[in-house]
Amino acid sequence: MVETIQWTDEGVVMIDQTRLPREQVFVTCRDYKEVAEAIRSMVIRGAPAIGVAAAMGVALGVREGADFETVCQTLAQTRPTAVNLFWAIERMRRVAAAMNGASSGEVAARMIEEARGIREDDIAICRAIGRNGAPLVPDGKTVLTHCNAGALATAGYGTALGVIRAAAESGKQIDVFADETRPFLQGSRLTAWELQQDGIATTIITDNMAGHFLHSGRIGCVVVGADRIAANGDVANKIGTYSVAVLAKENGVPFYVAAPVSTFDLSIPSGEAIPIEQRSAAEVTHVFGVPIAPESIAVANPAFDVTPARYVTAIICERGVARAPYEESLRNMLR
Predict the structure, then answer these.
(1) Candidate CATH numbers 3.40.630.30, 3.40.50.10540, 3.10.310.10, 1.20.120.420; the one for domain 5-127
(2) Catalytic-residue membership of 175
(3) 154 and which of 48, 70, 74, 132 could share a cystine (Cβ 3.0–4.6 Å)?
(4) Which residue out of 122, 179, 207, 227 is catalytically annotated?
């Protein structure tokens, strides 16, 4: 399985996801500003992976003697929707606060240790999510997923793809439909590539084919990831997820969300309060630099949408499976 991100003495090494699947290129971020730019430009993406990258960026900043608050603020301003980014920064803040009075070398060493620990924790969490979710995947059916919530979106193994991987590892005979996920094509570029590496049968479909196949009876369940989950169970995930959830409900197909508890944001009562990132028009008007739309045309490009909790069959996390009413079940998962 690909190493999404790792700490080295030279800096934070991550696979450049903007260049997959055409080529596998690893980049080394040697300071916190380079980590921030890698997050902003989607060299690294996926809520858990962004959290790991942010923690490592903080550790780099401390190691180089940069102002701590400037480092944290720079990283926090990269992408607004994925709550794991802010969770990881706050975890690093708490560690730094507990080191009050220690030497700069001691603080740096402890911050590096914590960032590496967040990475290892994430891999273990994803495997637990996979174990908890695998029993929900019907044997002998197709699983539909949207965007990329695999090893590339985490430190390893994946959330939604972790569930799929665990189901396959348990002996279930399944295959996968991967929505292409316009406009950034995370499904066709990343999810399909990952699953192909694992030998799991995968078919790419365009986003507007999902309803057709959900109606066909072939799909046994939908499994997606999440970037933030509100207290009532509303889920922010890659744009297009809401449409898939509505279609799944209409056709009686279970719709599962797989995400770590660090994605739960109980300070937000509903999805209406989740900030939605707006990205460059060029992602819509161009594909790999080739224009596909008229010049100067107006473009809307929200990176995420919010799926209301009423469409979510269950939320799979490392501590179990939460079901409605989510105000109660999500709170219980955090106890």
Answers:
(1) 1.20.120.420
(2) no
(3) 48
(4) 227
